[in-house]
Amino acid sequence: MDGNFNENDISHVVAADKAHVWHHLIQHKPFETNDPRIIIEGKGMRVWDQKGKEHLDAVSGGVWTVNVGYGRESIAKAVYDQLIKLNYFAGSAGSIPGALFSEKLISKMPGMTRVYYTNSGSEANEKAFKMVRQIAHKRYGGKKHKILYRDRDYHGTTIGALSAGGQLERNAQYGPFAPGFVSVPHCMEYRAQWDLTGEAYGKRAADAIEEVILREGPDTVGAICLEPVTAGGGVITPPPGYWERVQEICKKYDVLLHIDEVVCGVGRTGTWFGYQQYGVKPDMVTMAKGVASGYAAIACLVTTEEVFDMFKDDASDPLNYFRDISTFGGCTAGPAAALENMRIIEDENLLDNCTAMGTYMLDQLHALKDKHAVIGDVRGKGLFLGAELVSDRDSREPMDEKRVQAVVGDCNAQGVIIGATNRSVPGFNNTLCFSPALIATRDDIDEIITSVDKALTKVFG
After folding, report:
1. How far is C-alpha 432 from the geometric centre of its chain's CA atoms?
2. What is residue 181's three-state secondary structure?
3. Is 359 within a domain?
4. Which long-range contacts link 314-321 to residues 24+ away (Cβ below 8 Å)?
5. Most CB atoms within 10 A, among 42, 50, 159, 255?
6. Does 282 lie in the same domain as 152?
7. pLDDT one-digit tens code per residue, 335-385
8. According to the UniProt entry, where is the signal peptide (predicted)?
9. Closest CA to 411 of 448, 374, 386, 384
10. 284-287 and 299-303: which strand pairing?
11. Which of 347, 376, 410 is the last residue of a domain?
């Protein structure tokens, strides 16, 4: 830490936080007798809390965001320079960083052509849902309006996004939800719904989507929204054959394919986008977290020219264009930060590092699995990995969530921050989650693995 805060300053900050801040995803009752954790500073892979304790951050800011690590002065300078020149103008007009980042982003996404700026992943997904609904009204008399989503996937916090959410505990107490959203089965082979394996399982899981389309009526289904790798639902990598079959089904029934890259986008899996691992050609792609590595708020909805053209015509109807605005989608800090973020990823070869370190970490997690019987499955892509804990390997009985959280807590006490599925999928909040920054080294990975090894030994013996 740089020493800019003395003990009295920190005490005041803690008191102000306890008195006034409503934290995300936290029950505040314990704060009546305990202090919340306040992160004071970050550098590289590490952060320091108000007590001066150093932590190795293995989850990139807690929610898979800080892809290039903390303390990047060049990003801060790019934001500063842009804000002095022009901080904001509504998205009905353009800006220099908005134009240049869109050009750079599209260069990494063959087949995609248009970027719509928003300020969060939830909002980006809402925009996509609105486009699907407006297309239904413009072209299909409002009938082809249904949007499919997958069990265990997650697409955001708004009522609309929760309507497309496959995590029942995240949805609990927030209904009723918007109509016209329909679930399809997950594709998790470890929790197989059919007595098949490998490619046969992948194709069968995709065929289940076709069954839902036929049940609902192909003339009523406008789009399907899927994560390339399911994130908060358990870090679920799709089985072979799955994505190819999904693409075929979408083309067969004229269903728009919307890929939610809010977590996987901008390098997390070792390619610029997760869908590029599987040869998918989407119609719409949403992204947020890693776009600027958390240095400024930015999210994007990217579409093909075909989708864009559905809203570009000379008809006399004044309602034909996409009548939507994102106020803070007009902030220039986001694209300015995103441009520099992307430059860093390119110049430092972080996609290659992500692939290499991801392979190394996956191997180390498999070694932990050989050592600890409570690890039932290890999976992931790039530096986006999960280890599912079970109480019995043969039956695959999920480990109790409290004991999973005990592992997280012990790692934290050691000075390593890891994640876990948490109050998301009833009975299956049992996966340890890892998403270290793309700058991670073998030494960083070793420290994470050692911490998990010690925690598993302490919690389970």
Report:
1. 16
2. strand
3. yes
4. 320/138
5. 255
6. yes
7. 999 999 999 999 999 999 999 999 999 999 999 999 999 999 999 999 999
8. none
9. 448
10. antiparallel
11. 347
DSSP code, position 194: S
Angle at CA 209, nearest 5°, toward 433 and 146?
100
Residue 133 belongs to domain with CATH number:
3.40.640.10
Instruction: Give the pLDDT score at 2.
Output: 52
How many C-alpha atoms does 44 have within 13 Å on its Cβ side?
Answer: 10
Query: What sign has the CA pseudo-torsion 61, 64, 70, 73?
Result: negative
Q: Compute the distance between CA of residue 245 and CA of residue 237 in angstroms, rounded to an integer.
A: 15
What gap in Å lies between CA 338 and CA 75, rounded to an integer?
A: 8
User: Are residues 332 and 398 located together in one domain of the fold?
Assistant: no
Question: If DSSP codes are grouped into helix, strand and coil, which group holds residue 331?
Answer: strand
Note whether 88 and 150 are same-domain residues: yes
pTM over 0.85: yes
* Within a domain: 22: no
Structural domain boundaries, residue 417: 37-68+349-460
Give strand pairing partners of 257. 224
Do residues 278 and 418 both lie within one domain? no
Residue 18 lies in a domain: no
Burial 65-80 (b: 16+ CB within 10 A, else e): bbbbbbebeebeebbe
CA distance readout (Å), 224 to 135, 212, 263, 279, 441: 14, 11, 18, 17, 37
Backbone dihedral angles phi then psi of residue 111, each to the nearest 5 degrees: 95, -20
Say if residue 365 is in the same domain as residue 340: no
The CATH number of whichever domain residue 366 belongs to comes to: 3.90.1150.10
pLDDT (tens digit per residue) in 205-246? 999 999 999 999 999 999 999 999 999 999 999 999 999 999
Same domain (yes/no): 236, 365: no
Number of domains present in the structure of the chain: 2
Are 263 and 380 contacting, i.e. CB atoms less than 8 angstroms apart?
no
Place of tokens 């992160």: 39
Tell me the three-class secondary structure of 136-167, residue by residue.
HHHHHCCCCCEEEEECCCCCCCCHHHHHCCCC
Alpha-carbon span 382 to 360, nearest angstrom: 9
**Judgement on whether residues 122 and 55 belong to the same structural domain of the protein:** no
CB atoms within 10 A of CB 251: 11
**Domain boundary residue, one of 287, 315, 347:** 347
Provide, rounded to the nearest whole percent, the portion of the chain with pLDDT above 90: 93
- 212 and 338 co-located in one domain: yes
3-state secondary structure labels for all residues of 337-403: HHHHHHHHHHHCCHHHHHHHHHHHHHHHHHHHHHHCCCEEEEEECCCCEEEEEEEECCCCEECCHHH
- Largest distance between two CA atoms of the chain: 72
| Long-range Cβ contact pairs of 197-201 (< 8 A, separation 24 or more) | 198/239, 198/240, 198/241, 199/239, 199/240, 199/241, 200/241, 201/239, 201/241
